[in-house]
Amino acid sequence: MKSKDDIYKAILDEIDEDLRSMCEMNGKVGRPLPCPYCGEKNVERLAKTLVAVLEDRSPDIPGLVPEQYRADVHEARELLTAATLALLPLYFPPHNSCIESVATMVSMFRHGRNAGFKSAGVLLFEEVATGMKYSVKKDAYVPSLFVRHIDGGKPYGRLHRDGSRGFTADEDDAVMFYKRYLKVQRRVFDASPRFNFELCVKRPFEALLDERHTFYYMEEKMEIDLATKVRKLQDRYTLNFAQAKGYDLLDRLMIEALLAYLRDGTVSVAARESYLSQAERLIDGTVKLSCAANPDEGTDVDRIS
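The structure assignment produced for this chain is given below.
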């Protein structure tokens, strides 16, 4: 895992001189990003570079992102990053335009079990798109106080013919990138509602924060922990099979079926965790490690019936 300074330097090394200069214009901030707003094309370029650097230096936890969703997760990372890179300089003070703020905003996204769930990250972008802000204190939507720095436009002040408010994708780049992100998210959710898409999208961004334990929600920590355990089980099974070859056909079929189930992100964490111990017993209890080569290593383990 690289430090934030190393990651930021890698980002600067990968972008063009014009983009690098835009970052330097916001020089009073540590690890700055462009501010004032640098436009759609520049934001898109910077987002692609930032995501590429993060994915290279903070690779995905093996088993967390299923093969069939890897392209969607990558695309969503770029779009959500672009939406965030647009939102920060357009609506927040210049000191917020830094790589840590991108990670903080991405961390606010959370997977829901139904299509109507709205995390803090969703509500933030919806405030620009609807002109309304959700007030926890009032448990109701109130007029947004957002003001767009480039022209003084207010999402709440943008009134449409149907009575709705807020900026559309044609009127605001943050909304445009966010709407594109939603299309990818919706496509994956419709195919697999239980798959924790948001966790997979946001995972590499944890490297940009000091207090990484605050980056994830409790259920996300459980899912990461489970993915790590399953990967260790898979590695142990592979090593045991290569060294001892003590599995019969039935053992192998059962173990491989259990590992496939444990890797299935469409199944709840609780359901998968309930099969962990069974997989462990089969993997560790079936093999009879040979002691012939070195009598000080290994012990015979009887088969678990």
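Interim note for the steering committee: Confidence is low (pLDDT under 50) at residues 288-305. Residues 255 and 279 are 6 Å apart (CA to CA).
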